[in-house]
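#lab-general

N.A. 3:47 PM
ok so I finally got the sequence cleaned up, no stray characters, all 576 residues accounted for. can someone with queue access submit it? mine expired

B.Y. 3:52 PM
send it over

N.A. 3:53 PM
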Amino acid sequence: MGDERDRGARGGEASPTPIGLTLARFLTDGSLARLCAELSGMTGLTIELRDADGSRVRPGEHGEPFRIEAGAPSPSSGAERAPLVVEGQEIGAIWVGPGQTSLAGGRAALVASLHFLAAAASEVCENIVERDSRIHELDVLYRLTSSLVRASSVDRVLDLALDSALEVLGLDAGSIVLLPEEANAAEGALSSAEETTLRLATGRRLRADYLHSPVPLSRDRLFDRMALAGEVVTVEDVGEDARILEPERVIAQGLRSCINVGLVFRGRPIGVMRLYGRERRRFSEAEQRLLVSIGQQAALAVEQARLLRMQEEERRIARQLEIAGDVQRRMLPSQMPETPGVEVAARYVPSFELGGDFYDVFSLEREGRPMLGLTVGDVVGKGVAAALLMSAVRATLRANAEEDRGLNDVVERVNHAMCRDTLEHEFATLWFGVLDPATRRLHFTSAGHDPPMVIRVPEHRAPTVRDVDELIIGGMVVGIDPSQRYQIAAYDLRPGDVLVAYSDGIPDARSFSDEKFGKARLRDALLAFLAQHPEASASEIADHVMWQMRQFAGLRRRVDDQTLLVLRVARDPAEG
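B.Y. 4:20 PM
back already:
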């Protein structure tokens, strides 16, 4: 006994599956046939080896290991048999003709010994089948994996998996259905609602009316539930299986047997592979194991393809956000208006590609007099939504400010537009001021924004805390109450003064020890720098504040946009 791939007298290469197994597959050197012939000579009884179809297997002649006599007469009446069984299928038997023997123990002992011999031979054959199945399984999975790694889409992965499964199992038709990607099933725990969301992904040699029929194959979708839970579902004959919902519908497709297996990735069900045969068929354990392996490889490849698609989509979105961020930054003032006696600088660092902070500096006219408009704002949230709202708030404020309206009227119109066009949880803070460069009088209003600081810088001493004022004025954020009214206050700037307006991302910056930068540190950083550099420009002051804040926060990731607006009043009004 052995594997016919080494040497054989009948048939071609061994089938990888137990379907159609024959004794000839395992006959290599003819040893079992010769043993039967020797026993026959020793006992005086007819002892012969026969295939499952009744063909007699004899020792070979002229160098052949064995020969098969098809159409041999049936065993004599009264003959007994010891069957050889592989994978539950009888592949042949050792037959003992009628009569007695002179051997010790007589006929009964001989028959019992032949049963032991048949059992031992069957075990050898079982091992060969198991080995061949394992080799074939590894070969199939290797070839399938090699193909799957080159597949760039989920559809291609599923096509390859289905075609491979049909080919290696010798089946005739099949389909794969998938759960939605957002399904939250874990370890096969699928809700009844999720079961009904299985959608057709690919199919082979099945009519469209069958593929797209809402009628499930099994009652209460039992097969899908079992497969998604990790079980292999086999049906030997759909016409005889009570679990089939409408067997005549399946038979009308020319189908008779089926096997279902889940596509499961790390315990999470993805879908179901359904394969069909046109003949009645019992699926072996080796076949079921192979299909489970194919399903697992397919599930892994599907997840990888989805991941690649997500990564590509993320790269596309990142590029779009980068472009949008560039557009947004171009909307901010690239150059400050030239205003006699005043210098303005601004810094803006979004926490994401798109930010919700904004600032604006623009020239105005009030009663024919040139004015300078200053705005700092912060829209709630981050990202795309905040950026869109920021653009709307900035544009609305600028449009109304240029119509020679009062500051409170401008902010009230912005508030009304926000309340009208946004959701309840969307709002913004803003500070808006208008400076008369000739008189250095600053009129301002606020909608829930942090009050700017003004640092008086004396000519003959360093500034102290007593030289710091906050431009505090009440006012609710815009976008909440359309009836809100806003106040206006005035502040007279002096030569050398420094006005610093900012968003909450500046004082809210945190260190690795989770300590806030805070308003006090902002104030102290300004005072220390102006003590050493009393004539520093607005740009130098802005750079110093941002540097101090970055030193404080270190490499900790920013969680909010950071906006800084610095206005420096010249000591000599004639300076530009």
